[in-house]
Amino acid sequence: MVNEDTGALHLTFGSSAKTSDFIVDCLYDWWERQSPEQRERITLVRIKADNGPESNGRRTPFLNRMVAFADHIGKPVQLLYYPPYHSKYNPVERCRGILEQHWNGTLLVDARTMLEWAKSMTWKGLNPVVEMSRQVYDKGISLSKTAMKDIEARLQRNPELPKWDILIQPAVSV
Fold this sequence. Notes:
Elements (H helix, E strand, L loop, with lengths): L9 E5 L5 H14 L2 H6 L3 E5 L10 H14 L3 E5 L9 H12 L8 H10 L8 E5 L11 H10 E3 L7 E4 L6
Parallel strand pairs: 1-4, 2-3
Antiparallel strand pairs: 3-6, 5-6
Helix pairs in contact: 1-3, 3-6
């Protein structure tokens, strides 16, 4: 995750499949690392994504988990997707390029070496927060059409860009 305003970078490496659950669990970890003051200042969590198979705007497990995330943090979440072949505009992809240049030629022989090299890179003058997830994630999870109807009712799709711009408002507490 990249905070475009502050330059803060949070990198989580996984040892299992990259799934919707992995992505959203990383968001939860990022949120928990924010101080109460930082959380209070956040009025909208805007996520710019690449529309990959794990996180696209039609992916039922991802959307289900994102609705739960918005409810958990009590803040609206906006999902903005880049069109295919436009990842060069995604700040995360630029960070990945810097990381690849940083460890270019290094023998990443084990996870510890990889994590230490990632910790020593800089992005906008800052070192990233680097973590390793050892959680095992199952692939092939989907929601029923009935369950997805409830999730879809929570999504506010931009009428001009319904596949590329989705707003999720947190549930109203009673």
